[in-house]
Every structure is written in structure tokens, then in C-alpha cells.
Amino acid sequence: MTDTAIDIEALRASHARQYDPYSTATIQEHLDDIADRRENLPMSFSEKGGFWLATTYDDIAGMLRRNNKGFISFPNIPDGVLAFGQKRQIPIELDGPIHAQYRKLLDPLFSPSKVKGMEEQVRQIAIDLIAGFADKGEVDLVPEFAFPFPGTVFLSVMGWPVEDADMMNKWVGAFLHGVPGGTEEETLAARVDASEKSRAYIQAIVDDRRANPRDDITTAIVQAEFDGEPIPDEDLSDLFILLMMAGLDTTASVIAQSMAYFAKNPAKWDEMFADPDDIDAAVEELLRWTSPAVPTRNVADESAEVGGLELPKGERIHCPLAAANRDPKYYPDPDEIQFDRDPHPHLTFSLGTHRCIGVHLARQELRIAFEELRRVMPTFRLADGVEPKEHLSLTWGVEDVRLVFTPQDS
Amino acid sequence: MRQQRPPVEIDRDLCVGHGRCYNKAPGLFYADDMGLGHVKDVIDDNATPPDLARIIRACPESAIHLTATS
């Protein structure tokens, strides 16, 4: 590009500040650290992991928008080490024409009109799960609802057996969080085991749909062809695993973080339902505030500009979406939930070519989840002496939300 | 009664289908099979008068623009 080579080592050294994506801090503590960086060193380089951290809305939005235009999404992990030792994740780590082909296949399957047609099915799943604890007056909302709800919806819309939800949730847990409190070896073993079992499970479904096509999303994907060629089994398996993970942990995190917040801020729970026409705006604000996803982007051109820095090809930039969504430049008092904010767009579903495929399904699931929880839990609080345990890592979320409420007559 | 097309257009190179426009103002915008947003050619007379500035600001891709007034 130019004959002035970038002295990347000097640039890294002058912006050095360690960042731990797997920190054991709470989400708010972590966001406080990000706020300090945004103020003092908005682009920093973490020697540990070897990646840059972006902290402003403009820098992060700018990179996400430039996917395929100077940036690519592979590898989508800050330290660049593939999480499960496999190849590129389909479709989130694909770029260019092959990614466009996958989107052309998948987007219509999760379009607004298709998702609208799933509404009753989704609501019934929420009602059934809530019925499982409504008469008890106490619940750990994460295992009882936040996690199984999107998981069961996934199985149901894919046309897979919904009774497999527990098994699938365990695989997803192993992929994304390993063995909490366990050794690295235990985590690796759990992931290998989950990988082998989930692949065998999915292969059986793929084989079944080839032999017995049905009118469902799975069959549509299995029968798809790119340039006259069917999608190889291994790629189908990768795709289904990614869809499974992408829809579960993120939606679960938004529900769990939100309900933990409402337990401490009951007036907001009332405010959310004060005007039924405004519930969508309230869901948007909760999406902004919870932002579970933490993508990483990579410089693909000879160099690219981010936050005033010219970074050479191959540099990785970690982009916690919550960092963008808490930028006070666009959200005054960013750590506060305000349902009547000016609708400055949050980045929770990312931007550009990798915009979340499940955006319409997620919004519908969240609205239904909160509406149905409200019917059973008009008031609730955290159980005495248990603070929800949060985690950062590859999806920011909450491990338990133990709530107490007035039991409903069964 | 029908009204004229609203004075906005969607940049096809920028829209990726977040759905903010057709969710916030279904009387003015609609989704295609990919979930991409489009401006309706004619709008229902009884559609709520939209706050176009708000809808334009709500687009995550900044893909909606006012058309030049004649």
C-alpha cells in the first residue's frame, strides 16, 4: 500500500494494557474497567492473548460494518486459538461469497414472516416450562427457564425431538463454558465428548431427513445446494452445532441478566408492562444493556484504520458488544436501564454481513418470555443470601438466578 | 383512502435486515423473504403518522435516508 512499513511492535508497546476475556470479575466490574479504557486508552493491546481491545461504539461499529471490506471474522476468538480445535465455524467465521450463499439459504428460514408463524409454538414452550415451577414459589430461573426455553424453541423450530433439550443443553454448556471449576483437561475432555456425541446425533438427523424429507427447516438446509453441490455432511454438522449454540446461550443470557436486574429493581419490572405497546422498546433496552456476544475481527487488507491507528494485516481486534452499547457518547448514564431512550441502535445483534440470523426469533422469544413470566411472577425478589453468579468468557451471562415469588395455584 | 409513498428510501447496499423500520412503522415499511426492509409504495391512510426522524435514527446500518423533496 505505502512504502512506509507500520512498526507494529512499537504501536503495540505504546498501547499495551492487558485484557483478560476470561476474567472472574462481575460484568459490571468488567464494564467499569472498559469505561476507564474508553476514557484513557480506547484502543489497547493485550500482550497476553496477542489481540487489540476496542472500547468505543464508533470503533466497534466501524469494524463490524467493514466485514469483507478490510476486515474478516476468522478467527472469531480473541487469542486466535480455535476454541474446539476444529475448522472455521459455519457461518460466523466464513466471509465473502460462501458466507453470502449460507445467508441466502438461512435468512429466509428465519425471516419475520416465518418467525411470526412460530409464535404460538414458542409461547406454548414458555407456558409449559413456567408451569413446571409456578406453584413452587421459588426457582433457579437459569436451569428452569432461561436456558431450556431457547433450547426447546430451537429443537421445536428445527423439527428435532424436544425431549432432547436436556442433552443438548449439556453439550452447549460444555462447548461454551467447559467444566466450571474443573481443570483444563476436564474441560477439554468434556468438549471432545460433547463434540463426538452432538455430531453423531446430528448425523442421524441429517440421514433421516435425506431418507424422509419433511416440511421443516432442517430438511430445507439438508437439501440445499450451492452451485449444484449439496452441503457436505461435515459442514452441515458444523452449521447445526453453531445454530444450536448461537441461539441458546445468548438468549438465555439476556433473560437471566434481565431477571436478575428486575429482582433488584422491581419498579422497572412494573414499568416494562405499564404500556403493552412499549414492550418492544423495553426489550430493545434490555438487549442493549445485556449484550452477551463478544466477537473478534481481523484485519484482512494490507492495513486498516481503527480508532486513529493504522493496523497491519492479521491484527486481531476483540470487540465486546457491551463495550459499544455502554458508550456514554450515545447512551447517557449508560449503565442505567431507561426504557424511553432515544432509539440509538444497539449492536447486540452485530452489524453488517454477520448480523444475527436469529434477530427476529430472539426478539419474539424475549417478548414472549417476559410476558409469560410476568403472568406468574408479577412480583419477585432474589432468594436470601444468593447473589447471581456471573461469567464473562465467550458469551457474557449469569449462571444462576434464584428467585422467590408468590406461588400460583396449580 | 391511500397516501403517497413516504419520503424515505433504503440504501440496498447497507440494509442487512435488522427489521427496525418495519417493526416500528409497519404501515410504511415491509420485510421481504430475506428480512430486508422496503418502503411501501402506498400507505394506508389510517397508518399512524410516523416520526420519520426517529425511525431513521433507529436503523443500525444508517441505511434509511430522506428522499430529496421536489
With strands numbered from the N-terminus, the spatial order across the biggest sheet of chain A is 1-2-10-7-3
Largest sheet of chain A: 5 strands, mixed
Number of strands of chain A: 14
What is the CATH C-level name of chain A?
A: Mainly Alpha
Structural class of the helix and strand makeup of chain B?
Answer: alpha+beta
Query: What is the name of the CATH class of chain B?
Result: Alpha Beta
How many helices of chain A in DSSP terms? 16
Termini separation of chain B: 23 Å
Overall pLDDT score of chain A: 93
Q: Assign the CATH topology of chain A.
A: Cytochrome p450
Largest sheet of chain B: 2 strands, antiparallel
Mean pLDDT of chain B: 86
Radius of gyration of chain B, in Å, reads: 11 Å
Q: Describe it for me?
A:
- Chain A: Keywords: Heme, Iron, Metal-binding, Monooxygenase, Oxidoreductase.
- Chain A: It comes from Aeromicrobium ginsengisoli.
- Chain A: InterPro entries: Cyt_P450, Cyt_P450_B, Cyt_P450_CS, Cyt_P450_sf.
- Chain A: This is Cytochrome P450.
- Chain A: One of its GO terms (molecular function) is heme binding.
- The complex is a heterodimer of chains A (410) and B (70).
- With 410 residues, chain A is of the alpha+beta class.
- Chain A has one domain: Cytochrome p450 (Orthogonal Bundle), CATH 1.10.630.
- In chain A, 49% of the residues lie in helices and 10% in strands.
- Chain A has helices at 8-14, 27-40, 57-65, 96-109, 112-117, 119-131, 141-146, 148-158, 165-177, 184-211, 217-222, 233-264, 266-272, 279-290, 321-325, 359-376; strands at residues 43-46, 51-54, 71-72, 138-140, 225-226, 229-230, 296-299, 303-306, 309-312, 316-318, 380-382, 390-391, 397-398, 402-405.
- In chain A, a hairpin with a 5-residue loop joins strand 12 (390-391) and strand 13.
- The longest helix of chain A has 32 residues, at 233-264.
- Chain A is globular.
- By secondary structure, chain B is of the alpha+beta class.
- Chain B has a single domain, classed as Alpha-Beta Plaits (2-Layer Sandwich), CATH 3.30.70.20.
- Chain B is built from two helices and six strands.
- In chain B, the strands form three sheets. Chain B has a two-stranded antiparallel sheet with strand order 1-5. Chain B has a two-stranded antiparallel ribbon with strand order 2-6. A two-stranded antiparallel ribbon of chain B has the order 3-4.
- The mean pLDDT of chain B is 86.
- The chains are: A alpha+beta (410), B alpha+beta (70).
- The interface between A and B is medium-sized, with 23 and 19 residues.
